[in-house]
């Protein structure tokens, strides 16, 4: 008979085994009612002499996915997780964690405090706290190295690496993997171990043999490089070193204190905000969760250029079939070679097997014809950014595709409604704006056209997720969100250059802020010809000053196309190591001279404020226009698209931390210094500043 202990935890006695089942959808987070229920289950177990073992199992899609993130920052009610875990550890009879789905964070800590752990074959295990800017605080970082060794535990705790059931059984994290019904198997397992007279086992009783301190120094150096600017990964290494040095009982308190301190840190708040924002971004306004996405198995990609190739690779990687359509044999064979090169380097890195590469390539057809597309479910158009050329592709696709097939354009700035008008199926038209290189970059701006139906929007969201991307739905607006904001930062970086800053100073300030690379080093990487071409397309809509500020064109004219020609804003040696180049200073100086500009000293503060606040002001305009649905969507776009540091929570979250009033005052100042047309605060910023509010209320 099943007895409900709390809203989320029930118990049932199976002979001499007690089974405690948690059912707290969607992911069995360890919320208050779960903790209380587990406390009651432990008490029942301890007081009932007729039961000899207890099984902790979860209903639904997963074992405990950790502490309830939504409870963070609110007053916590007893029993706390640490207390439950201490009681599990102190039990006088064996407890078995039966794990399916993912045992994460506090969920894995619960399992680690049990005597035994058994799992379904697809189960995964991890301590991802570091990704939320915190660390395990209930003995997880002390028990794990005792159980699986310091080195294996280090990567799980400091990088948040998850391990499969196969790896977990090899390293001793779990005791058995069961293919059959997990509850029945776990009951059988429990009975076998108690019949065999098995004792309770405690990871906390295990002893860590001597370790090499150099391991921790190497881990610290690696964390500094991999997670530049993040606090928690460094602290994780300290914690595991402490676990290795100190007896378990002594280390509990400092472990909890570290977790608590990090929980209140600005980085953790920002990272937790990102966790929620990324999930919110998948909820599309006007598209209810009941809407069923269409099935997409085969995709036509039109345009075998750089974007088309990258998109093709990520579709093949996700198991889809692709027809890549081009205009000429030459274009298609170039694409084929480029795709083969991408796979070859994956092969060399060991991230892909030869068999798997063959399988992926066998799903690719290259053709110049639009015939035989009746089984294509969705087409992605990635041809030249020319409305007439794209409209022609839309018309051809109309004739070739089934009526219910979707057409998505990869345009980065053209009006999708205008393209939809060229189609007989405007309801099936939307945008999927990938970023270059498309097989690497995580962000996809999905664009809602005026007539896109809810199931089309749901389909492109699901497809992007299947490709391993982070899709964000945006509205129609030139440059959408990411590039529209980036163009303001680019403008300011160029203006600052002509006013007196150097590329190296601006790059230093922005990478010091947390961007992975400064704008000028990035331009050299992307290619100055690409930057000049992007500038040329925007030229008709530029202000007089922007038109005049043509340093990019001057560099291109001097043959400085970036890393590929050994010179751009910097000079590059054969290993592509950058150094300063006086020729660049001379080109910038000649631009100033030609335009009567006298260089002045520019502070780092001015550089940061102008680059950042110009973006934030544009973002506010985007929100006013409804081109982005929520500030969180903009944060997700910038952290996934252009490396805005996640530990600052994205531009809008960061803006709130600075304070909208402070930003408005700075915008007013730069309106005077640079020009009102560039820095006039938007109505939204004016209003928020007056009301003393932030973008997040
Ligand atoms: N607390 C509260 N809600 C959570 C949650 C958690 N730990 N984990 C996931 N959710 C919610 C999500 O917000 C989402 O809610 P909505 O549907 O309302 O958007 C829902 O559960 C489903 O989540 P996903 O969309 O992410 O589902 P998925 O199937 O793609 O992934 C998952 C499932 C692997 C469990 C993933 O959600 C995940 O990685 N969760 C975070 C796990 C984590 O970080 N745990 C550690 C927490 S900190 C801790 O435990 C330490 C401590 O004690 C202090």
TrEMBL record:
UniProt KW keywords: Fatty acid metabolism, Isomerase, Lipid degradation, Lipid metabolism, Lyase, Multifunctional enzyme, NAD, Oxidoreductase, Peroxisome
Primary residence: other
- Which residue intervals define the domain 3-hydroxyacyl-CoA dehydrogenase NAD binding in the entry? 298-475
Query: Pathway, according to UniProt?
Result: Lipid metabolism; fatty acid beta-oxidation
Reactions accelerated catalytically: a (3S)-3-hydroxyacyl-CoA + NAD(+) = a 3-oxoacyl-CoA + NADH + H(+)
InterPro entries named in the record: 3-OHacyl-CoA_DH_NAD-bd (IPR006176), 3HC_DH_C (IPR006108), 6-PGluconate_DH-like_C_sf (IPR008927), ClpP/crotonase-like_dom_sf (IPR029045), Enoyl-CoA_hydra/iso (IPR001753), NAD(P)-bd_dom_sf (IPR036291)
Q: Which CDD domains match?
A: crotonase-like
| Family matches, as Pfam families | 3HCDH, 3HCDH_N, ECH_1
Q: Where in the cell is it found?
A: Peroxisome
Taxonomic lineage from the root? Bacteria, Pseudomonadati, Pseudomonadota, Alphaproteobacteria, Hyphomicrobiales
Stated name of the protein: Enoyl-CoA hydratase/isomerase family protein
Q: 3-hydroxyacyl-CoA dehydrogenase C-terminal domain: which residues? A: 479-572, 607-693
């Amino acid at each position: 008979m099943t007895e409900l202990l709390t809203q989320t935890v029930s118990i049932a006695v199976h002979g001499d085994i007690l089974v405690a089942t948690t059912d707290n959808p969607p992911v069995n987070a360890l919320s208050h009612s779960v903790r209380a229920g587990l406390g009651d289950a432990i008490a029942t177990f301890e007081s009932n002499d007729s039961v000899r073992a207890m099984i902790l199992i979860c209903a639904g899609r997963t074992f405990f996915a950790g502490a309830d993130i939504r409870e963070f920052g609110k007053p916590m009610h007893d029993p706390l997780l640490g207390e439950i875990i201490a009681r599990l550890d102190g039990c006088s009879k064996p407890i078995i964690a039966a794990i399916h789905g993912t045992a994460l964070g506090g969920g894995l800590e619960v399992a680690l405090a049990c005597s035994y752990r058994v799992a379904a074959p697809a189960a995964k295990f991890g301590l991802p706290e570091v990704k939320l800017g915190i660390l395990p605080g209930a003995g997880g970082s002390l028990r794990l190295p005792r159980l699986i060794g310091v080195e294996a535990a280090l990567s799980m705790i400091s990088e948040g690496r998850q391990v499969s059931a196969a790896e977990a059984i090899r390293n001793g994290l779990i005791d058995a993997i069961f293919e059959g019904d997990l509850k029945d198997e776990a009951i059988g397992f429990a009975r076998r171990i108690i019949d065999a007279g098995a004792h309770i086992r405690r990871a906390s009783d295990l002893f860590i043999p001597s370790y090499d301190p150099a391991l921790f120094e190497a881990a610290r150096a690696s964390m500094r490089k991999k997670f530049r600017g993040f606090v928690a990964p460094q602290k994780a290494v300290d914690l595991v070193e402490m676990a290795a040095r100190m007896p378990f009982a002594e280390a509990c308190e400092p472990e909890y204190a570290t977790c608590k301190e990090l929980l209140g840190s600005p980085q953790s708040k920002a990272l937790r905000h990102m966790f929620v924002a990324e999930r919110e971004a998948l909820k599309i306004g006007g598209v209810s969760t009941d809407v069923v996405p269409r099935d997409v198995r085969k995709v036509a990609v039109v345009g075998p250029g750089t974007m088309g190739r990258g998109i093709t690779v990520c579709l093949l990687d996700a198991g889809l079939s692709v027809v890549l359509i081009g205009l000429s044999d030459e274009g298609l064979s170039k694409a084929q070679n480029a795709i083969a090169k991408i796979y070859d380097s994956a092969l060399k890195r060991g991230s892909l097997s030869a068999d798997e590469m063959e399988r992926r390539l066998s799903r690719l057809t290259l053709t110049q014809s639009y015939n035989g597309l009746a089984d294509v479910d969705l087409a992605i158009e990635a041809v030249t950014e020319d409305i007439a050329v794209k409209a022609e592709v839309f018309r051809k696709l109309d004739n070739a595709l089934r009526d219910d097939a979707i057409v998505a354009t990869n345009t980065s700035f053209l009006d999708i409604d205008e393209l939809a008008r060229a189609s007989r199926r405007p309801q099936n038209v939307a945008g999927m704006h990938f970023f270059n290189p498309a097989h690497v970059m995580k962000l996809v701006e999905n664009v809602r056209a005026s007539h896109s139906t809810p199931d089309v929007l749901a389909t492109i969201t699901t497809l992007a997720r299947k490709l391993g991307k982070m899709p964000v739905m945006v509205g129609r607006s030139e440059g959408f969100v990411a590039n529209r904001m980036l163009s303001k930062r680019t403008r300011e970086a160029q203006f600052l250059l002509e006013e007196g800053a150097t590329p190296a100073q601006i790059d230093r300030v922005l990478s010091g802020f947390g961007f992975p690379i400064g704008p000028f080093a990035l331009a050299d990487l992307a290619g100055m010809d690409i930057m000049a071409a992007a500038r040329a397309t925007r030229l008709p809509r530029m202000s007089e000053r922007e038109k005049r500020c043509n340093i990019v064109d001057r560099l291109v004219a001097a043959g400085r196309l970036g890393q590929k020609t050994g010179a751009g804003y910097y000079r590059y040696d054969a290993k592509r190591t950058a150094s300063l180049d006086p020729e660049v200073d001379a080109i910038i100086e000649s631009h100033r001279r030609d335009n009567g500009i006298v260089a002045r000293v520019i502070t780092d503060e001015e550089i940061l404020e102008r680059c950042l606040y110009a973006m934030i002001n544009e973002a506010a305009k985007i929100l006013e226009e409804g081109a982005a649905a929520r500030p969180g969507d903009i944060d997700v776009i910038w952290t996934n698209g252009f490396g805005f540091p996640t530990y600052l929570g994205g531009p809008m979250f960061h803006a709130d931390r600075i304070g909208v009033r402070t930003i408005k005052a700075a915008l007013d100042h730069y309106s005077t210094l640079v020009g009102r047309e560039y820095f006039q605060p938007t109505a939204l910023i004016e209003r928020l500043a007056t009301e003393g509010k932030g973008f997040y209320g």
